[in-house]
Design a protein that fits this description.
With 315 residues, the chain is mainly α. Helix content is 50%, strand content 4%. It has 2 domains: 103 residues, Tyrosine recombinase, N-terminal domain (DNA polymerase, domain 1, Orthogonal Bundle); 184 residues, Intergrase catalytic core (hpI Integrase, Chain A).
Length: 315
């Protein structure tokens, strides 16, 4: 069995038991895995060993940040355990994989309200109503998940009533995390609506996706992708981008994190999930009721407390 065939069989078996988001994450990583195997001339899955797994980890380490690397190698280890259970690789191979826990600073990346406002001011001045400006603003203002933002259609935005509505549409490639339970209306401030209006009028690509739907956030190729949103957030949260300074004593002209593909390597760069957590914390710190915040961002109060999102707002 080839690495690709093994991964596809694994994904097919897992599909009934996991959420769409989990399946998407596993598929994304395993696609990188089988492409790497192909580049390394690994023809059959039973030929892999601990050195191959270590080499793949080293290659990924050059491309992604510490938290992403940890998440990806955790997925790969689950897959390798599945391979063991099917007799496709030697037993014990998964136990020998190195999956180092990211340190506390990496796991708790966040953006402060002051930094978020600085980023918004920069975008308003230099990239007004661009896709990057609008995506960052909506994620910060609403605290919604990346998948929810991507799921929005043009008709889901109601400018006169100042809200967007979220719908679970798994059959057309825009599932929501908690399926129908994630469907809701999210109120928008006037400033956010004005920004969206200008984006739609001047910067939005007037295209449809593969299912004939009109996405709210688009590129020339159609609906904005998960990776595209991640890249925008990774890039704009680098201090060298929005403030032309580096708090990490790096030479900006020589730092590899200044390149588009390696933005996640900046210690200050954050992912959409970190931006969401920061937004939730900001809402709570402003005194909004926990129950209202939970409804707005599609989280239970219990989950927020378990993941320490409440911080000082709980104490």
């Amino acid at each position: 069995m080839t690495p690709k065939e093994a991964a596809q069989r694994y994904l097919k078996e897992r599909e009934p038991d996991v959420s769409d988001a989990t399946l998407y994450n596993h598929r994304s990583l395993l696609r990188q895995w089988w492409q790497w195997c192909d580049d390394e001339d690994i023809e059959y899955i039973n030929n892999i060993d601990g050195f191959d797994l270590a080499d793949f980890r080293l290659d990924r380490q050059l491309e992604v940040g510490e938290v992403t690397l940890y998440n990806q190698m955790t997925v790969l280890r689950v897959f390798v355990r599945w391979l063991q259970s099917r007799g496709l690789v030697e037993n014990g191979l998964a136990d020998g994989m190195t999956v180092a826990q990211p340190d506390d600073a990496s796991r708790n990346r966040k953006v402060t309200p002051e930094t978020a406002q600085q980023i918004l001011s920069f975008l308003e001045k230099y990239e007004y109503a661009s896709l990057r400006h609008t995506v960052f603003a909506v994620l910060w203002h609403t605290g919604m998940r990346l998948g929810a933002l991507r799921a929005l259609d043009l008709d889901d935005y109601h400018p006169e009533e100042h809200y967007v509505e979220l719908h679970h549409r798994p059959d057309t490639d825009t599932p929501l995390k908690n399926q129908e339970h994630s469907e809701r209306e999210v109120n928008l401030a006037l400033w956010c609506c004005s920004l969206l209006d200008d984006y739609i009028e001047g910067k939005r690509c007037d295209v449809t996706d593969d299912y004939g739907r009109s996405p709210l956030f688009t590129t020339e190729q159609g609906r904005v992708s998960h990776s595209n949103v991640r890249d925008h957030v990774n890039q704009i949260t680098r201090p060298c981008d929005f403030a032309n300074e580096c708090p990490h004593d790096r030479e900006i002209t020589e730092c590899e994190a200044t390149t588009r593909l390696h933005a996640a390597r900046c210690p200050s760069s954050i992912a959409p999930h970190d931006l969401r957590r920061s937004s939730v914390t900001h809402l709570l710190d402003e005194g909004h009721r926990k129950e209202l915040v939970a409804d707005r961002v599609d989280l239970s109060v219990k989950t927020m407390e378990e993941h320490s999102v409440l911080h000082k707002a709980v104490s």
